[in-house]
């Protein structure tokens, strides 16, 4: 034993050899760094890492990115919904994301989320899984960051993951979404190229909606039929979607009806402003990033000139040219750079073209104050399947508003108000505004009578002035026509005289 100890090198010798090896390795690393470009070094390191991982590691990694080709990755969305349910006190993670988007309730308990690079452990049928959410810079300019989940497991779990575990996650996520208590309303952030959401808690329902009972019944039955006919749409070869056009004067309840539909179906709302979209390509990316079981809302579609103007007709080329020149002058004055904008063809390609099949169970709702301004191509069935006129207040709608705001079903003043409403154009929003001024039915109804009466007086005055103006214009037109006829007679006499002299 003593002889064996004598043959071992001393500590000084060991440290000297280690220092020599370290110095040599540092020298070699420096030389390689100088001679081999950084990209090549990273490539070689990656290949060595993959080689050792493939032959010496028993782990396997699944990558689930947030987008799959041109659309949102539904598997990513399912995992995003599923994983927070696995976050608890026993979760092996050093950090936890908490927050709430319920702006209406500051005391709402925060909901857990998965922060970037945090690890979540899950167990399924005796198998151990480790999840992590990662983020990296996107290559394309319209996606600043790309998020993806990493799922690490044993190699021999691959088949179980594909056949059992991922379907379990999708079914659990679907169950959670179907039972969700809160809805979200989304708006698109053009700069960050992403939808941003907040809690949608609009109180409107079909019970509180001031609308003709027959029309309300028709809408409810149409919605029920739509959500129950998935197999029918597949059998006839059509995309599972439904288009609605809500048209009528301002203040007639178009937005309120949208809220009632969202609450009835438990669908999230995607509110898209076409005026902020640069071109058709960006519009396609925006629309394909919406989720199933949702409402796509495009309000005031008539305000988007390129989507409302006819593609094949120019009824008055001079007026169109004048409008274009005015737009060019405004852009030069304000020095605003602009893109071609959304075209009608680009919009139609999503709602009724090949891209309309990218998603299921969707409601597309357009609103407009002026239906006559829309291109006929937008109005045909398949694009806007149901046209709903949101007109002025009717006696039935008034009674519903009175019950909603005042809690009364009948009153001695009802008959008088109903007669005034039938003879004077009044919107439901105006009626509701008057009823909200006082909790006492008698006072509120008297205020409403005074409002409608004053409005009727103003309209009579305007009609009289308008009628007088029309008569004056008509007289001027007649005078102009008479002068034109006289001028034609003079020209005819001159022409006849010249011919005779010739």
Automatic annotation (TrEMBL):
Gene3D superfamilies: 6.10.280.40, P-loop containing nucleotide triphosphate hydrolases. One of its GO terms (molecular function) is ATP binding. GO terms for biological process: response to stress. It comes from the Eukaryota. It catalyses: ATP + H2O = ADP + phosphate + H(+). Its cofactor is Mg(2+). This is AAA+ ATPase domain-containing protein. It comes from Dovyalis caffra. The lineage of its organism: Eukaryota, Viridiplantae, Streptophyta, Embryophyta, Tracheophyta.
């Amino acid at each position: 034993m003593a002889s064996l100890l004598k043959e071992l090198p001393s500590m000084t010798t060991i440290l000297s050899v280690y220092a020599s090896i370290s110095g040599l390795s540092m020298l070699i690393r420096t030389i390689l760094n100088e001679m081999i470009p950084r990209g090549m070094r990273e490539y070689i390191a990656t290949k060595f890492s993959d080689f050792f991982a493939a032959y010496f590691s028993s782990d396997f990694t699944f990558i689930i990115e947030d987008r799959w080709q041109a659309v949102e990755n539904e598997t990513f969305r399912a995992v995003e919904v599923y994983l927070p349910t696995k976050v608890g006190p026993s979760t092996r993670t050093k950090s936890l994301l908490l927050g709430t988007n319920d702006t209406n309730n500051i005391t709402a308990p925060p909901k857990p989320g998965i922060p970037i690079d945090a690890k979540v452990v899950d167990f399924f049928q005796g198998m151990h899984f480790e999840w992590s959410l990662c983020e990296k810079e996107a290559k394309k300019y319209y996606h600043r960051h790309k998020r993806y989940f990493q799922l690490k497991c044993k190699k021999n779990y691959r088949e179980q993951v594909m056949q059992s575990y991922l379907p379990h996650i999708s079914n659990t996520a679907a169950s959670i979404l179907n039972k969700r208590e809160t809805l979200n309303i989304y708006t698109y952030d053009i700069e960050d190229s992403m939808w941003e959401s907040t809690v949608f808690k609009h109180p409107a329902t079909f019970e509180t909606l001031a609308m003709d009972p027959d029309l309300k019944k028709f809408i409810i039955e149409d919605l029920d039929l739509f959500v129950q006919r998935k197999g029918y749409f597949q059998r006839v070869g059509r995309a599972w979607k439904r288009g609605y056009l809500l048209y009528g004067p301002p203040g007639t309840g178009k937005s309120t009806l949208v809220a009632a539909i969202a609450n009835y179906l438990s669908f999230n709302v995607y509110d898209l402003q076409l005026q902020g979209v640069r071109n058709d390509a960006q519009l396609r990316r925006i629309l394909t990033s919406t989720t199933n079981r949702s409402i796509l809302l495009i309000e005031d579609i008539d305000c988007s000139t390129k989507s409302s103007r006819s593609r094949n007709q120019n009824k008055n080329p001079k007026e169109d040219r004048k409008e274009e020149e005015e737009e060019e002058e405004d852009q030069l004055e304000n020095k605003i750079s602009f893109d071609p904008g959304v075209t009608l063809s680009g919009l139609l390609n999503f709602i009724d073209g090949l891209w309309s099949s990218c998603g299921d169970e969707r409601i597309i709702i357009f609103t407009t104050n002026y239906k006559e301004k829309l291109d006929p191509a937008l109005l045909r069935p398949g694009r806007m399947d149901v046209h709903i006129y949101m007109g002025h207040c009717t006696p039935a709608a008034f009674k519903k508003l009175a019950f909603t705001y005042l809690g009364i079903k009948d009153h001695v003043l009802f008959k008088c108000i109903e007669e005034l409403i039938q003879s004077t154009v009044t919107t439901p929003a105006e009626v509701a505004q008057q009823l909200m001024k006082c909790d006492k039915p008698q006072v509120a109804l008297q205020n409403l009578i005074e409002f409608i009466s004053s409005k009727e007086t103003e309209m009579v005055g305007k009609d009289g002035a308008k009628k007088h103006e029309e008569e004056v214009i008509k007289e001027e037109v007649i005078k102009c026509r008479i002068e034109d006829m006289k001028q034609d007679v003079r020209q005819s006499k001159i022409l006849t005289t010249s011919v005779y002299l010739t």
